[in-house]
Amino acid sequence: MQETIGDTTYNWTDVTTEFADLCRNLPVGEVLRDEDFTLFEAMTALELMDPKMDGGMSIKNHFHEQKHGNRTLTLPQLIEKKLVKTSSLTPTELIHLFDQLLSTFHMWLDGHSLALTLYTCVYVHDIPIIEDYPLRTICYTFVKLIDYIRERILLKAGLFEEEDFSGTLTYNFPFYRDTIKDQTCLSDLKKCEDELNKRLRSLKHESELNQSEINATQQLIHRIRFLRLFFGVTLRFNEANEKTNEQTYLNSEEILRNLKQIDELLLLIRPSHVVDDETATSPDNAELIIPISSLADIARSFDPYYNYRQLPPAFNRFIRQLILPSCVYTFLGSICQQLRRMLEVNDKRTLKQAFEFFVEYSTNEKPSLFIRSLLLLSYLPSVQGCLLSSRKIFGQISFTEQVKYEMRLFIVPPLLTLKYITIDQETINYGENFFQRACVPFSNLFYSLCNNRARTREKLSNLLDEFSVLQDESEKLDQWLHKYFLQHILQANLSTLNAQTLLLIEKTSYFFQFILHWTLLIMEYYLLMGFDLSLYSKRELYDVYFYFAQIILFTHINVYKTSTNILNTTIPMLIQINQKHQQISKNQTSNIFVQQFNSLIQQHSNDDPLMDSANDSNPGQKKNKRKNLNGLLSTNTDHHEQEVALIHGHFAMSTAMHRCLKALELERRLRFSSTDANYFLRDEIRYRHRFLPFANLCAPPYMPHADFLHIQNLSDNRYTPKELYQDAINNFSQAKTYFESYLNRLTISKQQTLNRTFTTSFTSLADVESYIRIAKTNCVVLKLLLSGHKSDMKIDFDFTLHAHYPTLKL
After folding, report:
1. pTM
2. Is residue 258 part of a domain?
3. In terms of DSSP H, where are the helices of 133-210?
4. Are residues 15 and 86 part of one domain?
5. Is 635 inside a domain boundary?
6. Is 728 inside any structural domain?
7. Same domain, yes or no: 88 and 204
8. Which residues contact 136 (CB under 8 A, 6 or more apart)?
9. Mainly localized where (predicted)?
10. Which of 201-210, 527-536, 584-593 has the lowest mean pLDDT?
């Protein structure tokens, strides 16, 4: 049997009968094995003659339907056969092609291959032969837009996974990099827009007005202007200087102006809708109706099978219909809204603020890969040949400076606060090595937060290993610095120095406490993301809430207490040391570490806990600062009050949940039976699986399952169900009080209406409101259970109000 495919003729031999006879000798379930054909080859083999797996079958049927031979026609061949036209396109035809190209762009951003999206348009394979100037410009712009996003954004960010985004494969498609530049496309679009505006004015002055052509021309102008603005906005992200190849400054104000214009254009654009009936009209005039008869000359402009033979055998070969233009423009409107929200990251000047924004943005906006890549590159712009940890924040601030400043804000270590002390070279090298090493996990943290939710959780578990190493390094650095600074402080002979302050400085591990604080933040977010992704079974809830409250949150509360105590106790002493040495040093900072991030201190002086008034030359300001200093010396300030209120609230909620779960289990009132503990081998296996990422940490120390059972027996098992119910009610009430106190403090401190997505640590205002409702409801349910109400009824959990804590259902 002969078959011709393209220019090649194949001679096929039919082995169906012989193959079927051999298969009859194999029992059901048995697979043929050979040295060159193992089980792996059998499982990965393609099923011939199946259109879903055998690409030749689908394309063969397609060729039969098209009735033009077993081959794909190129653009010159289509022009020769007069199946498409490349000159004198009407505005209606251009609008249809524009909306179709925009739909392919949307599908490509959604993760589909270039071979099945943009390059199914026959025009983009050979753009130079297109005579129609607007069509040629539009095709060039879409190709350059996708090339820029792929090359300068997606590949630079490196956030995509092979299984959920295949749009980076190029298949040797033309991108015209040598023939046309990005800025040329923008100028050509502007030229097209001007020419169409002239054409529109001439149409309006004609004696016989053609309203349909006027409307089509106006709609085409809106579309070309939209494409120009959107392409221009995209070029502003991760834009590199052509001479130095360094990241240029991100001008957020200019981007916001362009986004506002895009929003206005999207309101004016009427998505096209192709219909068979020429008399059909849009009921609310929201769509631009295009009769299919008016598109006869460009009917073959899109061929979904054009690149079918270039796809690999195991590729997803389903040909999807293009998305409706109305949906595409809605999607583009949401992209503009997300971009506007994303630009707020430029106002986040500390690592804590940036972390909270990244968590808030990924949780509430559900950004696509394109937006997540822009977020990462806006915060950490890429530089050629530069590692992630070596990138500068906003292209300006090195990570080492930012980490030092963040540590100064959190716990004021003497190494980063005493401005006029001289530090020996060995101590400088020790400190710089630590900060250089700290850049890697902190930069990886923000990279992890820009991945999709499931991948973020996986990367956070790996990140904890890096923070474990950093904990060891911080302990060694603290031990090295203790004797050095203790001796220096004693020599200062300060009036504010007492035995309590001296003991606190001697016992405090500044660097370790800071690293532990961030480690606990990651652990807390890691466990809560398990609830967001619905990973925990009901049998695991007790383990998770117990570990979350008694190990992680309990440790974090102590860290915040230590930081607050240090800030309130040692700041007066540190200020006095700086003032005492200021006159001797003649206002010249000798501490090299403070010199490195002195610009950050001056930019954020209002947030700096160390209030030094000696450098201010204005007498009025001196007086005010002296007043603040005196107040600081005499009273304690509630540092981290918002974070502490939230941590206490989570601690009370988690404690209430594991006490409540234990009481329900003792009374056998849970819907899942206690005998289900063996469905996943043993409880110990599940326990180790959930908390294994914490095993390598120095602090908080990992609790093995045997110790967990022992502490559980000491804490919960010795109480009766009624006592556990009462304790859970008290904890829910306490949690409600903490959360309400947080809301009140936040309202007073901000003195403005906040967005419900405003996030502190990893908890938003909407989360807190849900927690309060859950705590109130569970208090009522537990009081009913305590009174013996419906003692034979099973209790179930409802996570619809919030994923982190369930509502008890009778």
Report:
1. 0.86
2. yes
3. 133-148, 155-157, 182-204
4. no
5. no
6. yes
7. yes
8. 127, 128, 130
9. cytoplasm
10. 584-593
Residues 552-611 pLDDT 10s: 999 999 999 999 988 888 887 777 777 776 666 656 667 788 777 776 766 665 666 664
Together in a domain, 38 and 65: no
HSE-up (13 A, CA, CB side) for residue 316: 15
123 conformational bin, left if phi > 0, alpha if psi -120 to 50, beta if neither: alpha
Stronger pLDDT, 484 or 661, i.e. the higher one: 661
**Structural domain containing residue 532:** 385-537
Reported as a single tens digit per residue, the pLDDT across 321-372 is 788 899 999 999 999 999 999 999 988 888 999 999 999 999 888 899 999 9
Q: What average pLDDT does the chain have? A: 83
Residue 654 and residue 719 in one domain: yes
Q: Are residues 50 and 66 in the same domain?
A: no
pLDDT digits (tens, 9 = 90+) for 519-531: 999 999 999 999 9
List phi, psi (to 5°) of 318: -70, 125
Rounded distance, CA 305 to CA 56, Å?
Answer: 11
Q: Which of 485, 507, 537 is the last residue of a domain?
A: 537
Residues in the chain: 810
Residue type, 779: C
pLDDT at 753: 60
Determine the pLDDT at residue 33. 75
* Mean pLDDT of all residues in 663-691: 72
The amino acid occupying position 763 is: T
**Tokens found for residue 382:** 């890429």
- How does DSSP classify residue 7? T
Do both 286 and 336 map to the same domain? yes
Nearest residue to 784 (alpha-carbon basis) of 691, 673, 675, 664: 664
Q: Are 128 and 168 in the same domain?
A: yes
Distance (Å, whole) CA 695 – CA 459: 16
φ, ψ for residue 428, nearest 5 deg: -60, -45
Residues 128 and 225 grouped into a single domain: yes
Q: Residue 734 above 90 pLDDT? A: yes
**Separation CA 169–CA 163 (nearest Å):** 13
Average of per-residue pLDDT across 85-105: 94
- Tally Cβ neighbours within 10 Å of residue 566: 22
Residue indicated by tokens 């096209």: 272
pLDDT at 351: 93
- What gap in Å lies between CA 54 and CA 61, rounded to an integer? 12
Q: What pLDDT is attached to residue 678?
A: 45
What is the domain count for the chain?
4
Contacts of 653 (CB under 8 A, 6+ apart): 731, 732, 735, 771, 774, 775, 805
* Beta carbons within 10 angstroms of residue 212's beta carbon: 12
Task: Please say whether the beta carbons of 288 and 274 come within 8 A.
Answer: no
Structure tokens at 680: 């996943």
Is 490 inside a domain boundary?
A: yes
CA distances from 14 to 3, 17, 18, 19 (A): 13, 8, 9, 10
Q: Which residues pair with 795 in a beta bridge?
A: 670
Residue 623: predicted pLDDT: 41
- Backbone dihedral angles phi then psi of residue 47, each to the nearest 5 degrees: -90, 110
Looking at 537, 565, 589, the residue that finishes a domain is 537
Cα(611)–Cα(571) distance, integer angstroms: 8
Which residue in this structure is represented by tokens 């450098």?
A: 615
